[in-house]
Write a structure and sequence with these properties.
Elements: E1 7-13, H1 21-31, E2 34-41, H2 52-62, E3 67-70, H3 83-97, E4 103-106, H4 111-122, E5 127-130, H5 142-147, H6 158-164, E6 167-171, H7 178-189, E7 193-194, H8 197-204, H9 211-229, E8 236-238, H10 242-253, H11 258-263, E9 270-274, H12 289-306, E10 310-313, H13 317-327
Parallel strand pairs: 1-2, 1-4, 2-3, 4-5, 6-8, 6-9, 7-8, 9-10
Helix pairs in contact: 3-4, 6-9, 7-13, 9-10
Length: 332
């Protein structure tokens, strides 16, 4: 049966840095008119935290029905190059890929001249289709999102939002007020917080944790964070991080699984070391204040050695909340 759609192959080109709802509106508009759709993405230079592998994952998750190619931007002209240079590069790229689109879709006026260059280079008519150039349907831009990601999360699909929502990880020795601070920060920001899975597993297993348990804890903690990050805003508060689990592997077993060591480098927007200037509370599961002091020193050494962004907060709860919020002004 012959297709009722206007074009056989459509083309959408974008940096998708990050992929947002405006891009998806354009892609949906193109898909409604094409049997097949090719999504091409490259950027030179790449934007920090928005590299090719991440964009491939986003497009695969959000646009699984389309062919998506995210290319190494090093081979592309600089983003600042003139339109003609970019048009010639795109034509060369399509010839190399052996793709001959029937239409090119964009929200920018460049689509007309670009389609003309492609038509001449490919020996095949490429129709320009301009979509919502005034950005009236979805008033957002990737530039605005990169400038203030925490305030623009609602413009992102869940898979992208999970990667871009700022994350705060709370660290510290036993009885340093991490969970209390996590709840207070979540209340301040009106967001969610991810509880410590290790404590949950420790209680279920009667206080016994093996080396494989610790790796499983770090993996599950990360999974729970990533699920919560799909809806958290403007920040995700994490009551712990794999760095803590890595520490307990050494404190309990004298070593750590190499996979756990890798997970210990999990990045956070900010790591907050909760000070030990509060009274030590023995709840029956903790060692003692001396062990807490050793843990604090270990955290400071690890955070500094790994080059992680971190602060140490001390004093009463209100002061700790203020210090953490001040260290993340874009979420205040």
């Amino acid at each position: 049966m012959a297709s009722l759609k206007r074009f056989r192959l459509g083309l959408v080109v974008g940096k998708f840095a990050p992929l947002h709802l405006g891009h998806l509106a354009l892609i949906d508009h193109a898909a409604a008119q094409c049997d097949r759709l090719l999504l091409l993405s490259y950027s030179n230079p790449e934007f920090p935290g928005l590299g090719p592998e991440r964009r491939r994952r986003w497009l695969a998750a959000v646009c699984p029905g389309h062919e998506a190619l995210v290319l190494d931007g090093a081979d592309a002209p600089p983003n600042s190059a003139d339109d003609r240079t970019h048009q010639r590069h795109l034509a060369s790229l399509l010839m190399h890929l052996q793709r001959r689109p029937d239409a090119m879709f964009a929200s920018e006026p460049y689509v007309g001249p670009c389609a003309a260059v492609l038509s001449a280079a490919l020996g095949h008519p490429v129709a320009p289709v301009l979509f919502d150039p005034a950005r009236a349907l979805v008033p957002v831009s990737a530039t605005a999102i990169r400038a203030r990601p925490a305030s623009m999360l609602d413009w992102l699909p869940a898979a992208v939002r999970a990667d871009l929502v700022p994350r705060v990880a709370l660290l510290g020795g036993e009885s340093t007020g991490k969970t209390t601070l996590a709840a207070a920060l979540a209340h301040h920001w009106g967001t969610v917080w991810v509880a410590e899975y290790g404590r949950e597993r420790w209680e279920v297993q009667g206080g016994e944790l093996t080396e494989p348990d610790l790796l499983a804890i770090a993996i599950e903690q990360g999974r729970r964070e990533d699920m919560a990050a799909r809806t958290a805003a403007p920040v995700l508060v994490c009551d712990t991080s794999p760095l803590t689990t890595f520490g307990y592997a050494h404190w309990m077993h004298g070593r750590a699984d190499p996979a756990l060591a890798d997970l210990a480098d999990r990045p956070y927007t900010l790591n907050v070391l909760c000070g030990d200037d509060i009274a030590f509370h023995q709840d029956g599961s903790r060692l003692d204040a001396a062990f807490r002091t050793r843990q604090q020193a270990w955290y400071r050494e690890q955070l500094a050695a790994r080059g992680m962004p971190w602060i140490e907060v001390r004093g009463p709860l209100a002061a700790r909340v203020r210090a953490t919020v001040a260290a993340m002004p874009f979420t205040a």
